Structures are given as structure tokens and as C-alpha cells.
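Methods: example folding runs. The two proteins below were folded one after another, and each record is reproduced exactly as written to the output file, sequence line first and C-alpha cell line second.
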Amino acid sequence: MQIREHIVELVSRDVLKEGMRLPPIRELARQLHLNQITVAKAYRDLSGSGVIEGRRGGGSFVSAKPEFGNWATRRPEINRPLLAERLFELAHAPGVIAFTSNYPLIDSATKQVLADCIREATETSLEDCLQYDPPHGRFQLREQIRRYFETQELQAGLDNIVVTSGAQQAIDLAIRALAEPGSSVLVERPAYYGVLNSCRAAGTRIFEVPLQSDGMDLDFVRQCLIRHRPKLICTNPTFQNPSGTSMSLEKRRALLDLCRKHGAVVLEDDHSPELRFSGKPIPSIRSLAGEDDLVIYARGFGKVFLPGMRVGCLVAPHSLIPKLLATKAQADLHSNSFVQEITARYLGRNDLARRVDRLCREYSARQRVVYDGLREGMPAGTEIVRPEGGLSLWLTLPNGADVSELYFRAVRPSSRGTCSTPRRRPFARCG
């Protein structure tokens, strides 16, 4: 981004004039001590925006008529197919066990309770569900969400809750409502790809904050708040997707203090705080915040309770609710009424604690199998993070590992329907 914007500034000031040739990618990368891919991305963005043009075999040149009037508000296209589509296809490919998406379990007990809720909703509330609902969501569901959040030590009034079609829509609505095109947004590195897609679609300037073992690097956040004045800070502080790390209580409080000081909004994605296998629960940032603090809490119920039902919500202070409701109304008016009714009945059952207990035992056992298998099977120098809960596990390959080779070896099915074994060369070329 710095390369791209610096070149834009030089062209706009006529320091780089029409027809001038830019340094070759390899040469500029060497001068800046950067990866060539980084420079190539900057050149690609500039070319897509009409600032420069490439000539086959001749390098990159300043365009004849670069346009800057709408540079800040230009909305970059999201590459097709979306990463989510590719991951879904991979997850359903014959002979592939997909570790790319953390889809939850669907046990027989959940299906039975859900079937009962569907039958009850059909028999008693079907006609009511065939009417339009307010963007806020159905009263019955918001009340059940409020009661459930109380068990999680999160206080939320009914007017502070906006029902959404899953956590992804909750995140997307918050970003579109609060981040203007060209404004700065802080995200974690690595980050959930759905957050990145929403930020790119909104035309924001994305600044990636390195993750440490106890959460975001707050010194980096502080510098960005001073230099770039971001409107929004996106964080997944508990069992972060994809790293699995959790932000410490001290950092949550410190981040909240920073945002109070600089007027930035925190968008907290909290997808599965119940799925804790060890350690003590850490309060959400929203539960630590005051009623008027600019913290938006995004929650979906698919990772823990209702996979595939696409039900979620936002919890936000009163000052931000009008913008969120307006954006929700523009998106789809309201979420599916019948699904809302089913979810309200499901959350109203008294077996949620038992379901969470079952899932924690099952997921903890599966995590142990994966972790032990990686410890035994991966080459020396591999770093494996074992989270205290959640659905993600992150590993870092040894220096010199051929990541592309690992990827293609992993998705290559054998005749027995499992991943093939090595024939000629190991996946990692380690020094």
C-alpha cells in the first residue's frame, strides 16, 4: 500500500511524468528489501486503476491519462472465484479431508432438538412468520439472545441487538456502515478472510496488525491510530480464526482504552467462546466496555449451536444502531423470519449447556489427535500452536519449506480415497 500510494503521489505531483518508465519489479524489490510479490501487487493495483500501464516485454510506464479524482473512493473488485467458494469446493472433493474451514459438528441430539423446534414453529407460528419483520429482528429471538448473553456475562438491551443472517453478514454490515471508502481499517495478521473481503469491497485501506501470543501488537495499533486514524479495528480476540490465539485480559482492556482515547470503533468477532478446553474464560471486549463505548460485538450461532442456519447478531451502543439498521435494511430488509422463530425456540431450550459440554469433549479429543499427529509427522522446525479452545489450529512450516508442494500433495487423492504418500521428494526443502 505504501508503494502504491507513494507512486500515486509522485504521479499526481508530476514528478513521474506521462510515459516515464518505473523501475522493474525485481530491482525495486531489491532496493526496498522487499519480496518481489509485494511490489508486483502494488504495480497490479496501479495498473488496474489506470495509473500505470504494462507493455509486454517493456516494463511498466506512467499512463497517458491517469485519473486521481476518485482514487480514494475507488472500490476494488474482489477476485473471483471467492476464497470461500474454493474452500467449499475443496471440502467436498472426493477423497479429501479438508482442514481449510472450521465447520462444526452436527450430532444426533442437535438434529432432534432442531426438528422439534421446526415442528413447533410450523404448527404455532407459521402464519406470523410469513409477514415482514423489522430490520432489528424478531422480538422473540432478540429476547432469547439477550438472555443467553447474560449467561456469558454480556449485558445487552433489546434495542442494542440487531439480528443478522450469520456472523459474516454481521461483520460486513458493521464494516459497510462505519468504514467509508478510503478510510483506514486495522485487521489482524493473519485474519479471517471474510473480514478482508468485506474491507476490500468497502474500498478501505487495510493495515495488518501482527498477532502475538497474547493478541494484537498494541504498540503497532497505537502507531496506526496516531498516523492513520483508522475508523475501525477488527479483532477476533477469543480463539482467533485462523491462528487460534486468544487476546489476554490485559490487552483487551488496553485496546479498549486506546480506542476511547482515539475515537476508533472496535468490531469484535466472537464466534465460539463457549468451546474452551482448558484455561479460564476471558470476558469479551464488549462485556468490559461501558454502555456508550464504541464496541460492536458480532456473533454467529453456527459454530456452536446451529450449523448452516445462518443466524447471527450485532450488539452495539445506541449511537451506532441507526447506521447499522439502515445498512441492514439496504442489504435484505430483515433476516429470514421462519429461521429466526426456530432459533428463538432453540435458544429457549434448557439443554444448551449440555450441548456445549458434549462439543467441548468431542472437539478437545479431535484437537488432541490432530496436534499429536502433527507433532509426530511434521519435520523438525515446525511450530505448532495448540489453542485453549475453538476450531482453529495454526502451524508454521520450517524455513525453506515448499508450501505449494505441501498444498498440492495434501489435496491429491490416492486410489484409496486418502491423501497420497510421497514418491520422490519431501514437501519441505529445509536448509
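Second run, written to the same file directly after the first:
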Amino acid sequence: MSDVEIVSLIAGVGVLALMVELLRRRQLKEKYAFLWLAVALVVAVLAVAPALLDTVAGWLDVADPVNLLLFVGLLVLLSVCVHLSWECSRLEDETRSLAEEVALLRNQVERLDPPA
């Protein structure tokens, strides 16, 4: 194993361990951890079997396997960004709705029991 493969394997196993620990402490939701667990497993597999990337690049007719790796990494990051933007928008709508509901309830309470 080359130095790059060893570092990749350590990185993959490290990310895997970190995700498991965050899940265990309930600091990360399962729906987010699944993506990072998958990324860590792919990194670990590619570190153990780097020829696999060459094989897949050959199937897809990509000249340099590193280009394929960077492209897939870019797609993963873009997917994460889109998903987080969607979650942020959804939570913003929910927060606005809850703030309106609290304001209406506060108004009802003040009408029933006006401050002295």
C-alpha cells in the first residue's frame, strides 16, 4: 500500500468513526449521517482497492480516473448544498408559522388577562 492509500484509508475510517460517534451522542440526525457514512465507506473501499476507480473510469470512458473522482465529489457536494438549502427554506417557513402562532396566542392571553 502506498502512502496515499494509507492516508485515504485512515481518512475514511476516521470519518466513519466520527459519524458513528455523532450518531451515538444524538448530535447528528440519521438522515444526514447516512450520506457521510456512504462517503466514508466509498473512500475506504477506494483506498483498499484503487484499481476499482480505474475500472469504473474505463467503463465510463473517462481518460483520467482522478477526474472522475473529482467530478463525483463535486456532484456530492452540490447535492448536499441543494439539500441543505431546501432544509433551510423549510425550517424558515416553519419558524415563521410558529412565530405567527405564538403572536396570536399571546394576543388571546392578553385579551383574557390584561396586564395590570
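Comment on the second run: The chain has four helices and no strands.
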